[in-house]
Amino acid sequence: MNITYDQAFTLCASKEFATRLSTAGPFPDLEAALHAARSIWWSVPVTEWLAAFSAHPRIGGQRFGNPDSNSHPSSHKAFDAHSSTEQAAASSSMTPSLQEELARWNQQYYDKFGHVFLICAKGRPAQDILASLQARYHRLPYEELQTAAGEQMKITEQRLTGLLEGAPTGTLDAQGRAHARANQELHETSTQQSSRSLCMPLICPLS
Q1: Residue 29 gets which letter from DSSP?
Q2: What is the rounded distance in angstroms from the CA atom of residue 21 to the CA atom of residue 102?
Q3: What is the pLDDT of residue 161?
Q4: Full-prediction pTM beyond 0.85?
Q5: 201 prior amide bond cis, ω within 30
Q6: pLDDT digits (tens, 9 = 90+) for 96-137
Q7: Which percentage of the chain shows pLDDT scores above 70?
Q8: Which residues contact 74 (CB under 8 A, 6 or more apart)?
Q9: 3-state secondary structure 169-183
Q10: Does residue 82 have an active-site annotation?
Q11: What's the half-sphere exposure (Cβ side, CA atoms, 13 Å) at 14?
């Protein structure tokens, strides 16, 4: 199994991640590709995490960051298509008042942490996402950075599973596997990643 740069970029919009994953193959099976993706993600610099976060549209809103100029326009469309599918439950349960509240909390979150609120949104209604946003807002920046990185890994694993299995990324089995793997990886690396907090006052100033 080989993964191109553009395919890797649709999984996770970090240039370093996409470059390293696309040159790490061929992979003998899905598990090998998932292992490589996890290893790469947890070893890239914080700046690459932030770049990946910024490619995601805010729940109920628009993307904050800019597309990667090294990737083909079709990969931007594929990334947007993934995001639209993953946020379908939130979009279908959205009301005008919820959208207004999400927009307000999204901005407060960005002002505090310096990056968009990221959550693996597949199957989650808007009210549930808003509750998660409000709860996570009260964390310290380095704690929230690691949580957001874990959510990005869940999203990446869902998309990678769909890509290599040729199945929709939203299948419950794929989602469950992605959540379990990402949560385990986040738990195992939390101690090492906490050292990254030294740079956080410059990246994510408190409001």
Answers
A1: S
A2: 34
A3: 93
A4: no
A5: no
A6: 888 899 999 999 999 999 999 999 877 687 888 999 999 999
A7: 63
A8: 6
A9: CCCHHHHHHHHHHHH
A10: no
A11: 23
